[in-house]
């Protein structure tokens, strides 16, 4: 009986990332390790070791693999990232600079990309946790710990209970077409994410994605294309959940899969939406060139007067802020608000319902902060918070953390600490890495030894929210 493929964690190192990419493209082309090795004149054993992150890949071999698999250079670019990010950290600690607050450890995405049936999902509570820890020198690091066992992760919407290898016909017999059922479940996961956080949702979304992968492999014709579209929607959700948890590497992995599957399904609007998400990820990583390029690609793909067109313009405005182009940034944001008014009366889109006035206000406030207009940014965050729906809990915490930084940069440490105190319990409850990253920065920037009680209270509360090195 063949062994299941080694589980890779693209978030751990560049070598794991490269192995996951190589495995994905090999399986996509329907090749065994031995067959691929023969095409590039190496042994199948070497291909297997590279996929398992046991052996490094040479630049010459990466180019040969790109040519043999028709990737368009994906592996050569992945190798450059792997070389720049060697996996040298010990298994039980991450001594890198401050990283975002994690939820439960990321299960690997490549299980759905194997030729064999995916292994069963781990039992609740089997995953380890990565938690923030303050070292003796005062730095924040993240350490890997076993679960407590007293409170297993919440399984919000378990996958449908079906036989081991369900087919589209199985669903049609009992519950209609699986695509609509799975989309309903995805909408529930999206709502739960903003209330409870990505850490409680990711495992369930990934399990659904495994199920969809099996259905896609069995599907034909229109059924297969429909399921590919659903598969892309779930991959995009997994990308967002990883992005909010602060795991940009795995977020890119899933978002790239979403783009590929949207193309394969022939869904032009879905492609436009995933391009928006890639632009948002590039913006989160502070890359103005990629943000601008992806925003322009979105606007070319999006139907006129659509939500997708507004999203592309919004990403373009933020790219101008990253480039410190104040005048054109303000003009673009003004045009975004005008475009949003034109689509406000349209029936709700299947995707992008988060695009509303509070979201645009929050994005503009962040852009103002990047441009150094911190007082105006604080006012913008206040306006966004006043109109934000109460169910957007995770988003409220993130906006509060950004408002705290804006107050601090406007030389208002007391107001910054108060906003931080409001955001900290939300960050801890939802596991939002983006929020915790801002709050960790706030902790480091607030004046040490301040006599202001709010500042002392925030620093004490933040310190209590992380473990301490023994």
Automatic annotation (TrEMBL):
What the entry lists under Pfam families is as follows:
HTH_31 (PF13560)
Q: Which CDD domains match?
A: HTH_XRE
Annotated signal sequence range: none
Q: What is this protein called?
A: Helix-turn-helix domain-containing protein
Where is region (Disordered) located? 84-126
Q: Which residues form the HTH cro/C1-type domain?
A: 22-75
Could you tell me which species this protein originates from? Actinacidiphila epipremni
- Give the InterPro entries listed for this entry: Cro/C1-type_HTH (IPR001387), Lambda_DNA-bd_dom_sf (IPR010982), TPR-like_helical_dom_sf (IPR011990)
Where in the sequence does UniProt note compositional bias of the Low complexity kind? 84-97
């Amino acid at each position: 009986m063949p062994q299941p493929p080694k589980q890779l964690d693209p978030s751990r190192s560049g070598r794991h990332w490269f192995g996951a990419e190589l495995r994905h493209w090999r399986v996509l082309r329907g090749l065994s390790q031995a067959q691929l090795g023969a095409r590039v004149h190496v042994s199948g054993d070497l291909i297997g070791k590279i996929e398992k992150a046991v052996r490094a890949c040479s630049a010459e071999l990466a180019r040969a693999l790109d040519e043999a698999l028709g990737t368009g250079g994906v592996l050569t670019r992945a190798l450059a990232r792997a070389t720049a990010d060697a996996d040298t950290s010990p298994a039980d600690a991450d001594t890198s600079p401050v990283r975002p607050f994690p939820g439960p450890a990321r299960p690997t995405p490549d299980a759905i990309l194997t030729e064999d049936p995916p292994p069963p999902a781990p039992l609740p509570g089997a995953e380890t946790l990565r938690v923030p820890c303050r070292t003796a020198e005062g730095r924040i690091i993240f350490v890997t710990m076993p679960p407590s066992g007293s409170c297993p992760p919440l399984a919000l919407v378990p996958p449908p209970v079906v036989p081991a290898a369900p087919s589209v016909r199985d669903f049609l017999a009992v519950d209609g077409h699986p695509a609509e059922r799975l989309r309903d479940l995805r909408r529930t996961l999206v709502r739960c994410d903003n209330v409870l956080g990505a850490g409680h949702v990711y495992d369930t979304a990934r399990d659904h994605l495994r199920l969809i992968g099996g259905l896609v492999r069995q599907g034909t014709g229109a059924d297969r294309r429909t399921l590919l579209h659903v598969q892309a929607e779930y991959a995009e959700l997994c990308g967002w959940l990883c992005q909010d948890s602060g795991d940009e590497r795995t977020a890119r992995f899933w978002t790239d899969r979403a783009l590929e599957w949207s193309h394969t399904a022939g869904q032009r609007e879905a492609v436009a939406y995933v391009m928006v998400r890639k632009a948002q990820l590039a913006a989160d990583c502070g890359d103005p060139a990629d943000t601008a390029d992806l925003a322009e690609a979105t606007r070319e793909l999006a139907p006129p007067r659509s939500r997708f067109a507004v999203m592309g313009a919004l990403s373009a405005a933020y790219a101008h802020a990253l480039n410190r182009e104040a005048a054109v940034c303000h003009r673009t944001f003004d045009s975004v608000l005008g475009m949003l008014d034109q689509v406000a009366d349209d029936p709700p889109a299947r995707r992008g319902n988060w695009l509303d006035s509070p979201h645009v206000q929050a994005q503009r406030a962040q852009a103002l902060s990047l441009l150094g207009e911190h007082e105006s940014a604080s006012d913008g965050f206040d306006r966004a918070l006043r109109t934000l729906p109460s169910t957007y809990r995770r988003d409220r915490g993130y906006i509060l953390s950004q408002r705290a930084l804006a107050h601090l940069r406007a030389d208002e440490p007391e107001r910054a600490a108060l906003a931080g105190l409001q955001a900290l319990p939300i960050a801890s409850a939802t596991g939002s890495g983006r929020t915790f990253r801002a709050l960790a920065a706030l902790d480091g920037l607030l004046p040490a030894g301040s006599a202001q009680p709010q500042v002392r209270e925030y620093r004490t509360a933040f310190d209590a929210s992380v473990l301490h090195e023994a």
